[in-house]
Design goal:
- The protein has about 325 residues and is α/β, with parallel strands linked by helices.
- It has two domains: about 150 residues, NAD(P)-binding Rossmann-like Domain (Rossmann fold, 3-Layer(aba) Sandwich), CATH 3.40.50.720; about 170 residues, L-2-Hydroxyisocaproate Dehydrogenase, Chain A, domain 2, CATH 3.90.110.
- The protein is built from twelve helices and 14 strands.
- The strands form four sheets. The protein has a six-stranded parallel β-sheet with strand order 3-2-1-4-5-6. A three-stranded antiparallel β-sheet has the order 7-10-11.
- The structure holds ligand NAX.
- Ligand NAX binds next to helix 1.
- Catalyzes the reversible oxidation of malate to oxaloacetate.
- It catalyses: (S)-malate + NAD(+) = oxaloacetate + NADH + H(+).
Length: about 325
C-alpha cells in the first residue's frame, strides 16, 4: 500500500451502530495510518438510506483531512468495484421467534451476493473482514462465492474476544492491559470459542512471566475466565439493551491495522482465518487461530502445546463450525 494512493474502503451495515463508531476510527487514521487518504464507500439496505445520509453529513462535519471522497450506496456492484478493503458488518439480526436455520438462511443469501460482487468487481488483492454474525460461516460463504480472490484474503473478527480476554486477565492480575500478551481465541465467534491463556505472559518489572504464574489460580483461568469471555457479548446486551458497538469497532480497527502493518515481533493476535490443518483443524472452515502478521500476510502460529483440556474445547468449537457450515451451505447451492 502506498500512502500517496487513495485506498478504497467499503463498510457494509454502514447505517448501523458498530459502523457509527467504526467509520470515525477509520477516517481519523486509526486503521490505515495518519497519512493514508481514503475513499469511503458505505453500503446499507434501501430502508436505511436516509439514516446513512445523516452519517455522511456527520463525516463531512468532522472535517477530517484523510477523507478524499464518500460514496453512499445500496448497490453491491457500485460498492465493491475496485475495493481494496471490505469490512462486512451488515447482517440479518436474529429476531424474536426466529429459528437458527432461518438466520443462517438469511445471512447465507446476503454473504453469497456480497462474495460474488467482491469476486467480480473488487481489486484482486482485496482484504475482507467479516463481522456480521455468524461471522465465521458468513466469511466462509463469501469466500466460497469469490473463487478468484485468494482464500487467505478472507477473515472474520475474533479480535473483540481477544481484547476481552486480555482485559479480563489485566483486571484479575491488576496490571495494565498493555502488559498482557499472547492470549488466544480458538474457533468460532460464539459461546463455544475457547479463550486460552496458557501460552500468554505478563510483562512485570521483573520480566516476562507466564499468566498462570502471576494469577496463581488455575481454577479461575480454566473456569470463570473462559465463561466470562464466552458470554461477554450477552452480558453487554443484558446491561446496555444494545450489543457491543464501540468495543467491536475498536477490535475491527485493531484487526485491519495489524493485517496491514503487521504484529510486533513475538506477539500473537487472534484472527478467524481459513483452516489449513494446523492443530488438527482440517481445511474447509474459517477458524480463529493465533497468528503473527508480516508484510500484509498472516501466519498461523505453529507448535503450541495442546493439552487434553484444550483439545476438548477446540474440538467442541470445531464441531459447531462444521454444523453451521452444513446448515448454511444447503442455502447457497
Ligand atoms: P445494527 O443492526 O445496528 O446494524 C446492522 C446494519 O446492517 C443495519 O444498518 C442494516 O440495515 C445493515 N444491513 C443488513 N443487511 C444488509 C445488507 N444486505 N447489506 C448492507 N447492509 C445491511 O447491528 P450492529 O450492532 O452494527 O452489528 C452488526 C453485526 O455485527 C451483527 O451481525 C452483530 O451480531 C455482529 N457482531 C459481531 C461481532 C464479532 O466479534 N464478530 C461483535 C459485535 C457484533 O455483535
Amino acid at each position: 500500500m502506498s500512502n500517496s494512493e487513495i485506498v478504497n474502503v467499503v463498510i457494509t451495515g454502514a447505517a448501523g451502530q458498530i459502523a457509527y463508531s467504526l467509520i470515525f476510527n477509520v477516517i481519523k487514521g486509526d486503521m490505515f495510518g495518519n497519512d493514508q487518504k481514503i475513499k469511503l464507500v458505505l453500503l446499507d439496505i434501501p430502508a436505511m438510506i436516509d439514516g446513512l445520509r445523516g452519517v455522511v453529513m456527520e463525516i463531512e462535519d468532522c472535517a477530517y483531512p484523510l477523507v478524499s471522497s464518500i460514496v453512499c450506496t445500496t448497490d453491491v456492484k457500485e460498492a465493491f468495484t475496485d475495493a481494496h478493503y471490505a469490512i462486512l458488518v451488515g447482517a440479518m439480526p436474529r429476531r424474536d421467534g426466529m429459528e437458527r436455520s432461518d438466520l443462517l438462511k438469511a445471512n447465507a443469501a446476503i454473504f453469497k451476493v456480497q462474495g460474488k460482487a467482491i469476486n467480480d468487481y473488487a481489486n484482486k488483492n482485496v482484504k475482507v473482514l467479516v463481522v456480521g454474525n455468524p461471522a465465521n460461516t458468513n466469511a466462509l460463504i463469501a469466500s466460497t462465492c469469490a473463487p478468484n480472490i485468494p482464500k487467505e484474503n478472507f477473515s472474520c473478527l475474533t479480535r473483540l474476544d481477544h481484547n476481552r480476554a486480555k482485559a479480563q486477565i489485566a483486571l484479575k492480575a491488576n496490571v495494565n492491559v498493555k502488559d498482557v500478551h499472547n492470549v488466544i481465541i480458538w474457533g468460532n465467534h460464539s459461546s463455544t470459542q475457547y479463550p486460552d491463556s496458557r501460552c500468554g505472559y505478563i510483562n512485570l518489572p521483573t520480566g516476562k512471566t507466564p499468566i498462570s504464574n502471576v494469577i496463581k489460580n488455575d481454577q479461575w483461568l480454566q473456569g470463570e475466565f473462559i465463561t466470562t469471555v464466552q458470554k461477554r457479548g450477552a452480558a453487554i446486551i443484558s446491561a446496555r439493551k444494545l450489543s457491543s458497538a464501540a468495543s467491536a469497532a475498536k477490535a475491527i480497527t485493531d484487526h485491519m491495522h495489524d493485517w496491514v502493518f503487521g504484529t510486533p515481533e513475538g506477539e500473537y493476535v487472534s484472527m478467524g482465518v481459513p483452516s489449513d490443518g494446523s492443530y488438527g483443524i482440517p481445511e474447509g472452515i474459517i477458524f480463529s487461530f493465533p497468528v503473527t502478521i508480516k508484510n500484509g500476510k498472516y501466519t498461523i502460529v505453529q507448535g503450541l502445546p495442546i493439552d487434553p483440556f484444550s483439545r476438548a474445547l477446540i474440538d467442541s468449537t470445531h464441531s459447531e463450525l462444521i454444523q453451521e457450515k452444513t446448515s448454511a451451505f444447503q442455502f447457497i447451492e
